[in-house]
Amino acid sequence: MPGPRRRSPTGAGDDHVHALIQGVILGVLTAGVYALMASGQTLIFGIMRVVNMAQGAMVILGAYLSYQMFTSLGVDPFLAIPVTTAVMFGVGVGVQLLFLRPLHAEDKSQLSVLVTFAVALLVEGLMSVTWNTTDRGINTGYVNASWTVFGYQITLVRLWAFLLSLAALALLYLVLNRTRFGRAVRASVQNPESARLLGVESERVAAIGYGLGTATAAAAGSVYGMLYPFNPGSHYDLISRLLSIVLLGGLGSIGGAVVGALVISVSSSIVAAAVSPIWSQMTFFVVLLLVLLIRPRGLFGTTVRGAI
Amino acid sequence: MKPRLAVGPLRAIVFFAVLWSLPVFNLAHWAMNMLVFTLMFAVMSSAWNLLGGFAGYPSLGHVAFFGIGAYAEVLWFHHHGITTGYEPFWLLPLIGIGVAVIGLPVAALAMRTRADVFAIVTITLLFVVQTLAYNLRGVTGGAQGAAIAAAPFPAATYERPFYDVLLVLLAVAMGLTWASMRSKVGLSLAAVRADEDKAAGIGVRVQTVKLLAFCVSVGLTGMVGAMWAYYEGFIYPQFAVDPLITVAIVLMTFLGGRATLWGPIIGAFILELAQQYFAYSLGGSQFYLIAYALVFLIVMLVLPRGILPSIQDRIRQRRRRRAVDAT
Amino acid sequence: MKTDNRLWTLGLAVTAAATLVAGCASGGGGTPGGASGPLVIGASVSLTGDFSDSGKAIQRGYQLWANMVNAKGGILGRQVKLTIVDDASSPTQVVTNYQNLINKDHVDLTFGPFSTLLTIPASQVAKRYGYAFLAPAGGGPAVFQLNLNNFFFVQPAPTIQSGNVFVNYLLSLPADQRPKTAAYAELDDPFSAPLAENIRQKLEAAGVHTVYKQVYPSETMDLSPVMGAIAALHPDLVVGGTQNEDAYDQVKSLVQLKYSPKFMFQSNGANSPLEFPDKVGAANTEGIMAPADWYPGSTAAGSAEFTAAYIKAYGGTAQSVDDSSAEAYAVGQLVSAVAAKTGKIDNATIISTLHSNTWPTLLGNLSWSANGAPAGEFNLVQWQKGTLLLVYPTSIAHARPEAPKPNWGG
C-alpha cells in the first residue's frame, strides 16, 4: 500500500513557490553551520593575518572524531562536541606552534597560505590512512526525523544544527567581548602594534586564536557529519565555500562571516531549487567574483594594507 | 661577470644535449614514460616560477589553465582528424596563445589583490573551472569525460615525439625566464616582488609587467595541459583540474628555489622521479599524501628559499670566509 | 664560481649516467617468463585513494583465484604469480604502472584496474604492446567506443545497460500493474546518469511518462531539493542513477518526506548487502530493486567454491562478500578456461579465443562483441525481509518480485 501523500494546498504553479520557500528554509538552517566554520576562519585571519586553508580539513577532522566517538562509544555527536572541541583546540594550538610560528615575517603572508594548505593535505592524508576513503556519515537514530510545518519540511537534525551553531556563535561572542583574552584578541585585530605596546602577548594570542578557530571548526564538523556524507577529500569543497563566505563578509569580521554565510547559503539553496543542483556550487564563486569586482574588502571588512 | 655569462648558456646547451640524446640509447619505455611526466612538471614549474617566483604572486590555481589547455586540445580534435599524429603538436602554440588571452581578463581581476588574497582568488578559479568542466556537459562531456584519438606512433618509439616536444617547451620556458632575468622586465618583476607600491611610485610599469608574467605563465601551463591530454588519450574534469598538480608544481619550485632559472627544473626532476618511482615500487599507500605534505612543510620551514639559492648562499659564504681568512 | 660549475657538471653527469644505466639495464635485456616458469600476471589496482575500497576487494578476488589455481597445480603446470601495484586512483599513475608492468617487469598477462576512469588509459597501454586486457570494472560507454579488440569487460553487460533487466521486468507485468509515471534522480558520473537515461528512454518508449528528471553533481551535499521535488509529483516509479552515498541519501530523503513510490530502483548502493540496510534502516529497504551480477547465494559456475574460499580466507559471511571480488575472480576463471580449452596461455590466444563462444563464470555466462562489450544482461535483485533476493529473470529467480513496494518502515 502506498504511503500517505502530502498534498500541495493549491495548484501546480505554487509548486515553484513552494520549492523556493523550502529552499530558503534549507538555506537558513544550513547557514548556521557555515557561519560557525567561517567565523573561526575569519577570526584566525583577524588575529594573525593568516588565511587558514586548513579550516575545511579541520571541520572534516572534527566530523571524523565525532564519527569515531559515535561508532565505538555510542556517544551522540551533539554530546561529543565538548570533547571534540577541546581536542581540536589542542590540535590547533599545536599546528600554530609547529608550523606557523617559525615562519619569518618577510615571507609570512605568501608562505602562510601555502603552509596552511600543506597542513590541510597532511590532515587529509592522516584521515585517509586512519579511516580510509569510504564516505562516512553519522547516522543517529533520529536522523530521518522531520517535522512538517505549514507544508514545509524541517529536518530535526538541521534544526538542532542551526540552534547549536547559534549557541556556539553566542559563546564566541561572549569570549571575545567579555573576557580579557577576548579584549586582547580584538585589540590585536584592530591594531597589532599598539596592542603589543600595551602589553598584549601577541604570540600567545596567536596560538590561542588559532586554537579557537580550529575548535569552532570541530564543533561545526560534528554537526556537519550528521548532515552530509564526508570523506577525507571533502575539505576541498568546504574550503572553497568558506573562502567565498569569509571574503564576502570581510576578512576579520565575525559578524560579516555570519551575514555572508546567510546570504550565500540561501542563494545557493535557491539556485539549487529554482535552477538545478548542478549550479548551486557556482553560486559561491559568482558571489566571490562580485565581491572582488564591486567591493573587495567585503561587507564589513576593513582595508588591510598589503592584503587587498 | 664575464666568465659567468658564457657559462650559463653552455650549461643549458649541455643539459638539453644530454636530454635530447637519451632516447637514442634505447631507453626502456617505462623510463621514457617517467621522463615525459617529469618534463611536463619541469615546464609547469618553470612557468609557475615566472608568476609565483619572479613576480611574487603565488598562484594556487595554475592547474585551471592546465585543464583549459587539455580540454581545448581534446575538443579541437573532436572536429578535426588526426592523421600523421603531429597535428596535436602543431596546435600547441595556438593553444598557448589562446590560454594566455583567456588569462588576460582573469589576471586583470585577480591581480588587484595581493599575496594571500591572490592565493584565495586563484584557488577559487581552480574550483570554478573544475565545476564548469563538470557542468558544461554538452561541451566537455562532463563527468563522462572526453576522448582524443590515440596517437598513431609506432609502439617502439611511442613516447619519443612527446618527449621531444616537451624538450622544446622546456627550452622555450627556460629561454623566456632567462631573457626576462636579463632584461628590464626582470628588473621590474623584482621590484614588484619586493614592494609593489613603491615600484609603482618610481614609475615601474607594474600593471603591464604583472599581466605579462601571468599570461606567459598560464599560456605555457596550458600547452602542457594539451600535451598531457594527448598523452593520456582520455580526460576527466577531476583529473584535468586536479589541485594536487598545483601543489606539486608549487612544491617543486619552492624546493628548487623560486626566482632562479634552474630551481624549478631541479625541483621537478627530484620530486617527480621520486614520486613516480616510490608510488610504483613501494606499492604506495595513502602515505604519499602525507609524505607530500611533510616535504612541503619541511621545505617551507627549513629551506624556504629552496635548494639552489641555499647552495649558492653557502658557496658564497665559504668564499667570503676564505677571502677573509686569506687576509 | 669554479665550485659552482664543478658541482654542476658533476650533478649533471651523475644524473645522466644514472638514467642511462637504469634505462639500458631494463631496456634490452630481460625476457618474459617464457613457456615455463611462473605465469606472472600484473595488475594496477586502487589500493589507496578514492576507489580504494573496491580496489582492495578486487585485489582479494585476484589473490583468491591465484591461490586456488595454484593449489590445483597452476595454469598449464605454471604457478600463478600476481604482481599487484597501487595506482592511488590516479590516471597518471595507472599509465606508468602498466608501462612498468609490461615493459620493465615483463609480466605475461595483465588484469584490469578498478573504474572506467582508469581502465581507458590503461587498456590503451596494453593494446600498444599486444596484451589482452581483462577488466573486472570500468564498463562505461566511453570504454567501448575505443573499439579495442584486446579489451574484455568481465561483467554480464556494459554498465549502462545494467538497468535493462529492470525494464524487462516492468514490461513483463500486465499493463494495469505497470507504473504510469516515473521520476529520475541521476548522479553525474560516467555511468550512473547514462544508466538511468538508458532506462528512461526505454520506459518512455513503452509509455511510462517522465514527470521529473534531474542530474546532480557528485559533490552534491543535499539531495532534499531534488527528492522534495520528486515527492511533490507523486510518481509511481522512482529511478535512482546512483553510486553508494547518494543512494542512501535518496532513500533517507524520501523517508523524511514521507513519500513511498510504488516502485523504486537504484543502480548502485541498494545492492550492498550490509551497507544499505545499515545506512537507511533495515525496515526501509523492503521492496527496493537493484541490478546485480554476483550476489550472495548465487548458483552460477564456481560461486559456491568462491564464497567458501572467501569466507575461509577473509572471514565474514556470504552477505559481506564484495561483488567486486567476485568480478575479479571471474577474470581469473576466464584465464583458467582459456588455458583448459586451448592448451596455451599467451596474449594472442586469449584475445582470439575469448571473442568466440560463451564462457561460464560465477557472474553467469559471458560473451563479448568485437569492442569488448559483453552481450548478456544483469540480474534483478530485490530486498525482501532484509535479504537481497534474485527476482528476475523468472527462469533463475529465487523469489517472486514484490510489487508494489510497501511503505517505509516495512
What does this structure look like?
The complex is a heterotrimer of chains A (308), B (327) and C (410). A two-stranded antiparallel ribbon of chain A has the order 1-2. The radius of gyration of chain A is 20 Å and the shape is globular. Chain A is built from eleven helices and two strands. Chain A has a domain at 24-135 and 142-232. With 308 residues, chain A is an all-alpha fold. In chain A, helix 1 (13-48) packs antiparallel against helix 8. In chain B, 77% of the residues lie in helices and 1% in strands. A two-stranded antiparallel ribbon of chain B has the order 1-2. The model of chain B has no long low-confidence stretch (mean pLDDT 85). Chain C has helices at 2-27, 52-71, 91-104, 116-128, 141-145, 164-172, 192-205, 224-233, 244-257, 275-280, 303-314, 323-342, 347-354, and strands spanning 39-45, 80-86, 109-111, 133-135, 151-153, 181-187, 209-216, 237-241, 263-266, 289-292, 359-361, 364-366, 379-384, 387-392. In chain C, the strands form four sheets. In chain C, strands 2-1-3-4-5 form a five-stranded parallel sheet, sandwiched between helices. A four-stranded parallel sheet of chain C has the order 7-6-8-9, sandwiched between helices. Chain C has a three-stranded antiparallel sheet with strand order 10-13-14, covered by helices on one side. Chain C is globular and about 65 Å long. Chains in contact: A-B, A-C, B-C. The interface between B and C is large, with 52 and 57 residues.
Strand content of chain C: 15-25%
Note the run of SSEs of chain C as H and E: HEHEHEHEHEHEHEHEHEHEHHHEEEE
Query: How many extended strands of chain C?
Result: 14
What is the distance, rounded to the nearest whole angstrom, between the alpha carbons of the first and last residues of chain A? Answer: 62 Å
Number of domains of chain C: 2
CATH class of the largest domain in chain C: Alpha Beta
Give the fraction of residues assigned to helices of chain A: over 70%
Q: How many angstroms does the end-to-end distance of chain C come to?
A: 82 Å
Strand order across the largest sheet of chain A: 1-2
By DSSP, the count of extended strands of chain A is 2
* Oligomeric status: heterotrimer
Shape of chain A: globular
User: pLDDT below 50 for ≥5 consecutive residues: which ranges of chain A?
Assistant: 1-12, 304-308
Helix/sheet category of chain C = alpha/beta
**Structural class of chain A, please?**
mainly alpha
Number of helices of chain C: 13
Query: By CATH's scheme, which homologous superfamily of the largest domain in chain C applies?
Result: Response regulator
Widest sheet, order of strands of chain C: 2-1-3-4-5
Q: How many whole angstroms does the radius of gyration of chain C measure?
A: 24 Å
Listing every helix as H and every strand as E from the N terminus to the C terminus, the arrangement of chain A reads HHHHEEHHHHHHH
